[in-house]
Amino acid sequence: MTVTTHPRDPPPLGELAAIIQRSLLANFASASVSVVECPDLRQPPFHLASSGLSGNPCIADVGGQANLFPRPNFDAKFDLRSLAKDMQMTEGEGGFLIGAGAAPFHDTGYNAELAVNLYTPPGPHVGTSDPDIDQVRNGTRIIQVNKDGSPCCEPIGSLNCGLMVNLFGSTGDTGPVLKITARARTGDKNFTHCIRLGLADHYGDSRPISLGGVFLLKAGKAKFHIMPDFPKEENLPFRDREQLEKNWLTYHDFGAPVICLTVMHSSDPEGLGLRMEHTHCFEVDGNRKGGHYHYDLQDEGEEVEYEAYLNVASTIYRIDRPGA
Question: What would be an example GO MF term here (predicted)?
Fold first, then answer.
């Protein structure tokens, strides 16, 4: 696989906090952004595989949507711990990965969404593919559509993914992070768009900002999509992206609480073909809610509320870019 490395020069978290808060207050009745010591994200309500988002924070954009459109690329198979090695997560530090991708179809036998939540402790096994290493904490969920059309969200034992994945990586340590809250949307931008576009408006292409972390839909409802299994050969190739989005994806409305793992970029001045925002979500109880986050459904009457913890990446890795 081709791996390219792109350093970033992020401003202080306090500077980002003020910009993000202004953007959120233009679209929500109330919002606050502050720099705090990260709480233990292993605990409810977040249930992550490591406690924090600090320690060599970085982001990888792996594969891409071109591996799905106009027809699936079944050669696009990835090992998450090998990706951690590509992201220069050294064996002396361990690695914590969260993010959004596609399920390992080569392990499951079908297509689905993937919410990556994986911690590999320090040791010589970092970046290897041995699935029997003790103390690996794999909280990754697969979100799929059952044959009757109902959604299902459950843990997956595999340490692989397919087609595409957007990952925020760190050593999983506690440290300073952005704490973001927002309630009662009044504008037309969703939560992640407010954050990303606020930074884009301020910095433009001159200083790209890349963030990753977790947010909780604490109240209200949101719309999600879930990829079904791959279409039959007679229904391929996808004629255009509209066919894929309108006639193949399945859409679902879920109420809080839902845990959301997100990666986002304010801009892509180097033309890396980055996916500008990718968020996959899951629930711990109920084995039903989850998928790709689109936007909250504030117009249905119940006030929406969010709480997020994000950190800024100092390095971007573009891995196995289609067509590169």
Answer: zinc ion binding
